[in-house]
Every structure is written in C-alpha cells, then in structure tokens.
Amino acid sequence: MPSPAPSRLLVVKLSSLGDVVHTLPLIEALRHGGGPELHLAWAVRKAFAPLVLGNPHVSAVHVLEEKSLRATLAFGKTLKEERFDTALDPQGLFVSGLLALLSGAPRRIGLDKNREGNKLFLTDARIASTHRAHQVEKLAAFCDVLGYPRLAPRVQTYLAGDAPREKTWVGCIIGASTPDKTWPLERWKSLIAALEGRGLTPVLLGGPGAEAEAAAQVASAGCLNLAGKTKLPELAKTVAQCGVVIGADTGPLHLAVAVGTPVVGLYGVTDPARTGPGWGPAPAVVLDFVEKEAPPESRRPRHGTIPDALARIPAEAVLDAVERLLT
Hints:
By secondary structure, this protein is of the alpha/beta class. It has helices at 17-34, 49-52, 69-80, 94-102, 135-146, 157-160, 185-197, 210-218, 232-241, 251-258, 272-275, 315-326; strands at 8-12, 39-45, 60-64, 86-89, 107-111, 124-127, 166-173, 201-205, 224-225, 242-248, 263-267, 284-288. It contains 12 helices and 12 strands.
C-alpha cells in the first residue's frame, strides 16, 4: 500500500553553501507537487539561513543556531512540536539524521548510502546516491518517492533581486574552500588585465580572511573588489547582476547558477558530472585540463588527485570562454 501524501513535510539540509543551493530546485518541486496546502519546512544552520529565508516555496524556516550537542537536542525538541508526518534527509550525515528522528516524523526518507551512521535514523533509505549523476538530479529522486513530478531547475528570482544585469561585469570568485580548488593568483592577474583590456569590469568575490587578502593582491584600479564585503543575500544579487561568473567548484559558483548567470567552471579536482555548473537554466562552460591524468569519473570528494590541477588551466582559455558566453 503506498504511503499517504505528506501534509507536514520537513527537509533537513543544514549546510554547506553549495549543498543548500543544490537543494533549491527540490524545494520548488516539492511545493509544486504538494500544492499550496502542504506545510513545507526547512531546517538549516544559521550561517546559511539567509539564503532560505524569503524562499516563496517554504512555509517555515527552522534555524539551528549552534553546533553543540545541547543545541542540537534542543533544536530537535522544537522540531517535534511542529508535528511533521514526513522528514526528508538529503544531507546524509549523523546530525541531519538525528534531527530527522528527533522531529518525531514517523516517515523519514534519506539516502541509500550515507555516512556517520545516518541510515540508523531513517525509515526509508532508498534515494540512490552513489551513481554518477549530478547532485541536483539525485535530490530530485525524493520527488519520485513521494509521487511528485520532477521539475527542471528554474531561476531563483527571490535571490536574484531586481537590479538589471550588467553585461560588462565579470564575477571572479577568488579562492575556494580547499587549496587544490584555488586558481593561482598569477593566473587571476593575467585574466583581470585581459578583461580590463576588453572594456570589461572584473568584480572580485570571495569570503573574508584569506580570500579577501588574495583578492586584494590581484585587484587593480579597474576592478570592483567586493571580496569579504558581501553577506549571502548581497552575494546572490551581485552574481545575478554579472554578465558571467568565473570560479572553481564552490558554493558561490553554484549560487550564480541558481540565479541564472552564465558561468565558467574551473575543474580538475571534482567531477563535473556530479557537481558541475551545468544544472541550471543558463549556459555554462567547464574547463578541465587534467581529464587524462585524473579521469573525472574516478574523482571523489575530499580525495584530491593532482595538486596543481587548476593551475594547468591557462588564463587564455578562461578569457575565451568568457567571450563566448558574452556573445
């Protein structure tokens, strides 16, 4: 006998930036499938809540303020008060599974292969997660289990804002979460000079600390240096204004995809088929110069292959990709 359709549905996707962004198409599909009467809630960590707040498809946002066990248990009690009948765990980790259990939802759906004992918290661990497919496509399988139709990813207009696109702005995401995903600063300097020589405005983007310091090293008089100066909502609006955004496999690059901006993805560490930028409605170019030495299908998250993989991408190749996307 098929399970009844949910009426109070919780999605537990706590972090990180890229993972939260990849969940946005699923949220829209859940709203489409469940209709306006579905109570659709999202549990997320405080750092990423600004991207979720204001989402027109979400009925309620529950924010986990701290990472401590005490805070997590207290958060679970808060979730239980909401009387969810179904919880989805697309995160697949210990904490996300624990919160799904603590929510009191009698049906808890998650990934078939997961980490940190996550499967122990689930009642229905059937979402295929190890095959070579994009994360956005894998998450769409939650719709299949619920009997909802899948939706093709659309532009997240609530994040994009109303400002017009500046075709001459080229977003440059300086830095990444790990050193092997970082394009060398000398490459950025060469590219920025070439962009300015063509009348384009490099918009430097990145987080505070090391990324902001790196951006300061490559910035020139013709740059708009916003690295370390934008919070997540402002970052989303900024990448939405750009004509093109360039970056490695990072959260800000996928945020640009979500708001419909064409992107140039610098790859070589991760598999573009799994986490590439081609999942959105706008065109994307992937540059990968180590496909022979490190076949993309053999790459795994958190297991680096060639340390200088991104350094092998020349500035000329990136410039050519930018020009193709702008024409």
